[in-house]
C-alpha cells in the first residue's frame, strides 16, 4: 500500500495552482518548492502577494528563473 504525504509547505502553491486550473498540469515538486519560496520572498519584501502576480511568477519560474531573482522582475505596483 502506498501512502501519500501532503507537505503543508507546498499548500499555498497547491492552492494557487488549483485557483488557476493548473493543478493537474503541474506536478513537479521542485517547481512547487520554487513557487512557495518565491511567494514567501515576495511577501517578505513587499508585505503581500497579489494573486494577479501568480501567472507571471509561474512563467518566470518555468523559464528557469531562480525564486530570489523573480521578486526583482515583478513590480508590485503593476499588480495593485
Structure, explained:
This protein is an all-alpha fold and 80 residues long. It has a domain at 29-78. 54% of the residues lie in helices and 0% in strands. Helix 2 packs across helix 3. The longest helix is centred in the middle third of the chain and has 18 residues, at 29-46.
Largest sheet: none
Strand composition percent: under 5%
SSE class: mainly alpha
Helix/strand order, N-terminal first: HHHH
Shape: globular
How many helical elements? 4
Task: List its salient traits.
single chain, 80 residues, mainly alpha, globular
Topology:
Elements: H1 11-19, H2 29-46, H3 54-62, H4 67-73
Helix pairs in contact: 1-2, 2-3, 2-4
In short:
By secondary structure, the protein is mostly helical. The protein has four helices and no strands.
Amino acid at each position: 500500500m502506498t501512502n501519500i504525504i501532503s507537505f503543508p509547505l507546498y499548500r499555498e502553491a497547491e492552492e494557487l495552482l488549483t485557483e488557476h486550473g493548473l493543478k493537474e498540469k503541474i506536478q513537479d515538486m521542485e517547481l512547487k518548492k520554487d513557487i512557495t519560496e518565491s511567494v514567501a520572498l515576495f511577501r517578505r519584501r513587499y508585505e503581500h502577494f497579489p494573486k494577479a502576480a501568480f501567472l507571471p511568477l509561474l512563467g518566470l519560474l518555468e523559464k528557469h528563473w531562480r525564486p530570489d531573482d523573480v521578486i526583482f522582475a515583478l513590480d508590485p505596483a503593476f499588480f495593485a
